[in-house]
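User: I'm curious whether this sequence folds into something compact or stays loose and floppy. Could you predict its structure so I can see for myself?
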Amino acid sequence: MDVVGVIKRITDAHSKDFTGKKGPFTVWSIGILMDNGEWYNIKAFEKQKAEALLQSDQLKRSWKVGDEVKMFLEAEDDAAKYWKIVSIAPSSPMDEVEVEDIVDAEETDHAENANAKAVEEKVITPEEKKEMDDKKPVKDMKKVSDYKSTEADKYELGMAKNNAAIIFAAMIPTGDPVKAKEFIKEEAKYYTTLTKALYEKGRMLREELLGY
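Assistant: Here's the prediction. I'll summarize afterward.
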């Protein structure tokens, strides 16, 4: 199950102690309020792991109020009455672009348009035109292609990690937090293997279909 929307509030991490069949244990929780008016929770046995889910690999920062995201949820009980967040991703690839970058791009466009208009209004001699053409930088298509592939690879890795987290989370035993914790500790390497496999497959498919 997934939820798409805008984050309205994020609580601090807080803990709650429980008593299980194999002894007491602690669950850390972080609440996220979405623009649909519903609260959703990140839960983990360690504070660091709960807070780690608030980190965006795509944006290289923590998720914050105002971000438009897609949250992937997992049922905590067989009746699917209670759900927890297992991963968070941008709701679309455009979410990877910072607002500052968009503003800078718009200002650059305005400046370039103003310069182009000034050149059009000036009468340019053939000699001046030739000199301007000689000084015009040659576009390095290989550099453009490499940059495009690098950015696509970053996005591919982020999606691979999110999808691997969903698949891995579905394998975790439910109903017994102690067994769940043991499973995560013993089978964590499977998540890494799965992430790498999804990443490489995604890259191959992208190169086959899009050429980069």
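Summary: Strands lie at 2-10, 14-20, 23-34, 39-44, 55-56, 61-62, 68-75, 83-90. Residues 2-96+144-210 form one domain.
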